Amino acid sequence: MFNQEIFNECLAEYKKDFQQRFGDEKYKWEAVKWFQEHWDINAENFYEMFTAATEKTYNLLASMNNFPRGMIQVFSEQEPETVRAMFLNLYDESKDVAERVVKFQSDAQELCERLAPGKQHFQRPMAISVYLWLRYPDKYAIYKYMALRRATMYLKNDFVPKKSTPIDSIRGNITFTNEIRDIICKDEELVKAFQEARNEDSYPDENLITLSNDIEMYISVKYAEPDKGEKSDEGGDAQDEQKIVAEDADVVDINSLHSNNAYNRWLNAIVVALRELGGMAKRKDVHSKIAELYALSEEELSVTHKSGTPKIYNDIDWARNYLSYEGIIEKDSPSGVWELSALGQKIVISDDLAGKIIAKWNRINLAKRENKAIPVIDLEPLYEYITVKEVRLPVYTKDNFLGEVYMAPENYDTLRALLLKKKNLILQGAPGVGKTFAAKRLAYSIMGCEDESRIEFIQFHQNYSYEDFIMGYKPSGDTFELEPGVFYDFCRKAAEDKDRQYFFIIDEINRGNMSKIFGELLMLIEADYRGKEAKLAYNKKPFSVPNNLYLIGMMNTADRSLAMIDYALRRRFSFYTMEPGFSSKGFQSYMKAFENDTFDTLIDRIRDLNMEITKDSALGSGFCIGHSYFCGQTEISDEWMQSVVEYDIIPMLQEYWFDDDAKLQKWQNILRGVFND
Predict the structure, then answer these.
(1) Could you tell me the strand order of the sheet in which 345-349 lies?
(2) CA 556 vs CA 465, 514, 575: distances in Å
């Protein structure tokens, strides 16, 4: 429960502002009524029905950098029955709301990986709460993390949402809204004002849920101070109070172009036009597109500065550069050109222009890091020298993974879920089970494409140090300079691209002194501490491990020279044991393709050998022979198979059974006997 005295003060101000407030926000009640009248889960054409039913949601399902409605439209055009099933489950009130929200997100992620690899699905908790509210407006309220957090903190509420627990926050939002409702339903003055202001196009809101939710939004903007330690669930910065104003805004109103709310709406309209035309569109084309989209005349759009330049041109430049923050510039060494990834495209730029653009880009990144005003980049003078080409990264799905890694589908689902939940995963297993091979492909399958730029691979060893990994002093001429380590740099890279997933892969993770290597970051890699800051040992500056970074380690269970993994690190990782995949559907298909009886016999003997190793009390399943020794071939010969047996398998058995000559001799004879008539 919250402080009612503080709430009463806020409510008094809300009632004073009600007429203007409702005029700005009535589209929400109109959106609900429209949805109720047009929603038909059994419609023959689901795409058309969904598009029509959500037509009046405006910024609720599409804001500056968030497009949940658009992605559902994309998915429902291609797989309407899959999307229909998603909404059937979401609207099934017999199930727990948390279970439904999680499944909706999971299904959206799977669709995105399959239909739009490399893109986002945007089905975040806020968007899903909007779907629930549209369908059941007398029960559910819109959930906006920052709005809820600010309002609950200002009112000294018992419950304050945390970014790490979105499901609990959605439930808390429902409770908080109901507590407000319990008070305002007794306020005859406010109820009467609402009933008089509402017209026939607005939902009656008899339970006053939407009105109560609007009061929450009002408090979050008018009274609450920005919470500098938190980030919005929609990807924005908590310090940016205008973000909430922009998200709550209605469609563009040209007559009040430069009032705060309308101006944010206006910029949003430009972004929508740019996304439709493409970021490289000329200003005059964007100008015309906005006139078309919003039924505005050229005259209404032609307000000029004293210089005679249309004001809209400056706004278009701002919006174009806003979108370009999503990209990066990188050197493509083999081709000798630079690539600017922005607006979903890669722009190939010759070396003589790269310096100019990179200099401007660096100034932007510096300004962003230091929370300074971001300067505008105007690339338009360079457009005639820039060649735009579509570069599509190879798609990589669950099916691709299972076709290469030789794992059962249900095991892949478990592996993926463990990494996404814990954020830190160790693949452990016998030699040759494909741990390293699987780690990178697991990352590909989660990203939905083979994007090497978002993967970093290193290998630990006994001399690997904190200075190599995080930060340390390195020789530089006659002195030493403080240099960041590979993990520090990769965390920074991931933090600047927070809407995409990054993967840091560590081979032989148990060969290093992990407590020493991770240092103070041992705590920060935990899922619950992601985004939390700690001061680094060398530069004394705050640092955090970003939420979108995932750690995958590999560990050989047959290496008896290594001590057990440090317990402090063990409890921060999930451990998944990979087993030989000889029985998997993928390996069976691989084996059958050769139609080689000798190869089939050899694999049968290796499987028998693994049973013997598993039963051996001194060894166990962690010492089994993995399938990867026999993979990666396009054709099979006796010479190759004999080479694997003599130089890979038998030397390993000699180490396993160094004290049991009889058993070693037995299996040498069995394996060599495969090749004798």
Answers:
(1) 328-332, 337-342, 345-349, 387-389
(2) 21, 16, 12
Sequence-separated (6 or more) residues with CB below 8 Å from residue 287? 298, 301, 310, 312, 313, 316
Classify domain 398-578 by CATH number: 3.40.50.300
Domain boundaries, the chain: 4-248, 251-322, 325-392, 398-578, 585-673
pLDDT digits (tens, 9 = 90+) for 333-344: 233 333 443 333
> What is the rounded distance in angstroms from the CA atom of residue 43 to the CA atom of residue 49?
7
| The pLDDT of residue 181 | 95
Q: Which phi and psi (to 5°) does residue 368 adopt?
A: -65, -45
The residues with which 331 forms a beta bridge, in sequence order, are 338
Closest to 319 (Cα-Cα) out of 276, 351, 363:
276
> Are β-strands 479-484 and 328-332 bridged in parallel, bridged antiparallel, or unpaired?
unpaired
pTM: 0.45
Return d(Cα 210, Cα 360) in angstroms, integer.
45
Nearest to 487 by CA among 462, 521, 447: 521
Q: What's the token pair of residue 594?
A: 């050769």
In this predicted structure, the answer to whether residue 349 has a pLDDT above a threshold of 50 is no
Residue 205 in this model has a pLDDT that exceeds 50: yes
- Looking at per-residue pLDDT, the higher value among 184 and 483 belongs to 184
Record the tokens describing residue 355, joined without a space. 């310096």
Backbone Cα Rg of the chain:
30
Amino acid 44 reads E
Q: Is the dihedral of CA 56, 60, 64, 66 positive or negative?
A: negative
397 vs 111: CA distance, rounded Å: 10
Q: How far is CA 189 from the centre of its chain?
A: 45
Q: What's residue 271's pLDDT?
A: 65
Tell me: pLDDT of 10 over 90. yes
Q: Tell me, what's the pLDDT at 236?
A: 37
pLDDT band at 246 (very low <50, low <70, confident <90, very high): very low
Q: Taking phi first (over 0 means left), then psi (-120 to 50 degrees means alpha), and beta for anything else, what does residue 565 get?
A: beta
